[in-house]
Structures are given as structure tokens and as C-alpha cells.
# Entry
Amino acid sequence: MSEEPLLKVEGLTTEFTTDNGTLTAVDGIDFEINRGETLCLVGESGSGKTVASESITRIVPTPPGEVSGSVVFDGQEITAMSESELRGIRGGRVAHVFQNPQDALNHCYTVGWQIVEAIQTHDPDVTKQEARERAIELLSDVGVANAAARLDDYPHEFSGGQKQRVMIAMALVTNPDLLIADEPTTALDVTVQAQILNLLEDIQDKYDMSILFVTHDLGVVAGIADEVVVMYAGKVMERGGVHEIFDNPSHPYTRALLECLPGKARSAEGIPGSLPSPINPPDGCRFAPRCDYAVEECRAGDQPPEEPLSENHAVSCVHYQQGYDPSVVRGEATQGDDATAGGVTSD
# Structure
């Protein structure tokens, strides 16, 4: 019997009440993360991936937000937990690293004070001296040079990449089982981005944890992911192992994202058009209004069901249903090897 996934999400839906109507940011998505695995949620800004990641531990503001569906973490249904029960999971067994460390750190306090506070919040029996020693160890683990001396520096004395390392250190305070990293490299230059990605791989091995990595950059995905879920306008377009996604991209949206990598066909102009309104989304496939291959059936009913292409690869597209010809959307413009080379830094 196979081991149960660490995280199992089913029918996750997150809606916000606005003056203009109900905004559905995440619309009934499913995914699983196994122990020790990295799953990447990928999509353009506004696709719902950040809201999905924040809905897992219910840090979405309520109201105006409302989260429904099932989120099972290590056999426990998170959506059924009280706020006090959830605090034992959130920030403990599940930790978040957010996109902009500049905003996440308090610039009135030293980084050491902030890490020590996090340690003692989760374990009040730890003395301040023990917490400081643990903070130095964590800063060393994330590659902050001369950690003991830097402990009493303020956030403004750190570079952007160093601030992100501090945020990762704070996330590791409780030795989490799952780290949710929301675009942690977006604000960093390419060289520092590669260093942070390598750091995440190193600490994943050391701490034996799973990672949910949120990004819009498929180039980043190729270097770190085990599994990939491609989101668009709150829906899942395609899912599969990283090799399936890069070697055999099957949804027109996935292919379009790959063509936006540096040196590819769409790298300069991007994907024509814009995401649909989350308040009044189109019928049928959410991507149909921007899709070069959309037919009448793509614009009617609900989002097409996911069609299995292999044991570990599925796509939500009518062209893969019985009676259609999937070769229509599977040209030779994007090849897996070329796409991978376009945006990945391995060192």
C-alpha cells in the first residue's frame, strides 16, 4: 500500500465578496504533495496560485474571503480545525516564505530579535540564550556568513538576497514538514535567485521537508520541481511530473508559457490578451479567449475535465477528449530540451 500524501487538496475554492460581486480567485482545484517532494504551482500573475497557497493554512483574510473544499495535512482535515488548533499547524508544521522580505521583516528590530521571538513563541520553555544559539545555527544553515556577528544587525543592513535567507531561517524555526514558498526569488537578480534555489534544495535535504513553490517562471520550475500544476484564472490547465511538462507540454497555455522563456517565440511580446475577470469568467475553458486552437466546444459549459495522458500527466482541454485530434495543439514549436535550457540556472 502506497504512503498517503503529506498534503491532499480537493475542490479548493476561495471567493472574495466585493462591491462588484463575488470574485472567485481559486475555483475547485486539486493537487497532492508527497513527503520530501517539491510541487510547483505555475501561472501568470492573477492566476490564483498565491491565493491557493494561502488558503491551505487559511491566512486569507476572512471576511472578505471564504475558503471551501478539503485540505488534508498528514491525515488531518485543516478546514475543520478551530483557529487555536490551526495555530499548531500554521507556522509550525507548515511554514510560509513570502515574496518580498523587505515587507515581511520588521525594520525596527534586529534580525536576531525577530528569529529569537519566533523560536520562543513556538517553544516558550527555550531560554533566550538557547534561542540565540539556535538563531545563529539557522542563519548559518541558510548561508548567512559570520552569522553570530550578523545576528544583531537590522534588516536594512542586509541585501535583498540576505533578507530572503533570513526569512527562510525564520521559516525553519519549527523544522516544518511543509514549506510554502511564494515567489521567493522574484525580487532578486538572476545570480542571487540561483543561490536561493540551491539553498532551498539543500535545506530540503537537511530538514527532510516538502516544498510547495509558487512561481510564474517555468524556467525556475525546471530546476527544482518534482511535480508541476499549471494554473490559469483559478483553474488547473495541466498537471504532471516536471519531465512530462517540459518534454510533452500538452495544454495550449502550458505551451504558451514555455514559449515565453528567454530566446523562445513569445519571449518579447508574451501571450496576447489578458486573464478573464474572476468575477465574471467566460464559459468553457478559461483560456479559450486567448487560445489559438479554441473551437466552439471550448467556449461552452464548464472547464473541460482533466484527461489522463499517462499515469502522471493530465490536461484540461477538449482536444484530448474522444473524437478530437490532440495533434492540433501539439506542434513542434516547443521542445522540452530547448525550453529547459531557456531559463534554468543550475549553478
